[in-house]
């Protein structure tokens, strides 16, 4: 059973207000507000536990609970090992149990994200919006201004593709002649619907390395539901995904979405007390690997063509702190001929995307993103690589807003291009 907010009292009292979190908290850096900091948030939650106020009835206080990015930077820095991100998620679950989520969020979590096919229909509607002239009207008539933060975030949308990954699978999936390994690919919501070209690159890379790939039916990993305290739906989605993947005898479950990888790995903790699904979740979580992590473990072919470009890398929070994946994507990038890799200052600093945070807290997320863009600018790189679709969307938006030359790209896309360029000699084009 998932621990309730009140059961974390022993954890929260460990915060001694030392202030180490001040140097790493993105929201504190841009607001300067005490309650936008782990120390301040922990103080609010502790006061609620001690009965000074009811957390579920204080909107102003809840604002600070929901303004947390859940990036985990404070957790790895805290000398007292206070798990602030976990405490914040538990507090949100408490608030959700008492009040429910606002209608738009509830609609997204229980309606759109509850079933992959519903999200696919929504994505196709967004494509119609982008291609029909409706977007032009919305932008030039002032309609977007009426939508508040949602209207501002409209520019985050990438160009929606005509077909999802699942619709393209018959053309992409090919069994290697002599497969060395067999894996199941988790097609996350964003990869399937918004970035199928990235997922195709991943599948080609795996097949190029003689890895057989199967793509089971799946729903959302549950990360958004966890972030908004929708515990019951989170558990439901986890069980559905486990039932789908258990039918396949594979050595690993891979995904090119760092957030999905983190979410899938968490199933072991989420369901540890479930007599039926607990053991299955443990076995499943042990197999979950982020794509670059898996390739680094089993080895990947170094015979590539050049990709002549300067590249830097942004560490997704769920990868670098959730999964402890840091060196593997860099290992891949540095192995590509022609790539000049430049380390970016504060590469593991949150970009402000944080799932839907850049929609619900657009202005704040953009202030956080500006720091990332300034660090990217100093690298002089042509490509800003990452391994998370939410980060990819946020970073691409940042490059556009700040009018910076460069392109946000997934690590697997660069590796895929290098394999495609293998037959090309010295004049190979960049991606």
Automatic annotation (TrEMBL):
PROSITE patterns for this protein: 4FE4S_FER_1, 4FE4S_FER_2
Cofactor: [4Fe-4S] cluster
Top EC group: oxidoreductase
Cofactor note: Binds 2 [4Fe-4S] clusters.
Source organism phylogeny: Bacteria, Bacillati, Bacillota, Clostridia, Neomoorellales
UniProt keyword annotation of Repeat present: yes
InterPro entries: 4Fe4S_Fe-S-bd, 4Fe4S_Fe_S_CS, Cys_rich_dom, Glc_ox_4Fe-4S, Helical_ferredxn
Domain of life from the UniProt record: Bacteria
Any one Gene Ontology molecular-function term assigned to this protein's record: 4 iron, 4 sulfur cluster binding
Organism (species): Moorella mulderi DSM 14980
Protein name: Glycolate oxidase iron-sulfur subunit
Gene designation: lutA_1
Catalysed reactions, as listed in the record: glycolate + A = glyoxylate + AH2; (R)-lactate + A = pyruvate + AH2
SUPFAM superfamilies listed in its UniProt record: alpha-helical ferredoxin (SSF46548)
Pfam families: CCG, Fer4_8
Swiss-Prot/TrEMBL keywords: 4Fe-4S, Electron transport, Iron, Iron-sulfur, Metal-binding, Repeat, Transport
E.C. number: 1.1.99.14
Function: Component of a complex that catalyzes the oxidation of glycolate to glyoxylate.
Sequence ranges assigned to domain 4Fe-4S ferredoxin-type in this UniProt record: 6-35, 57-88
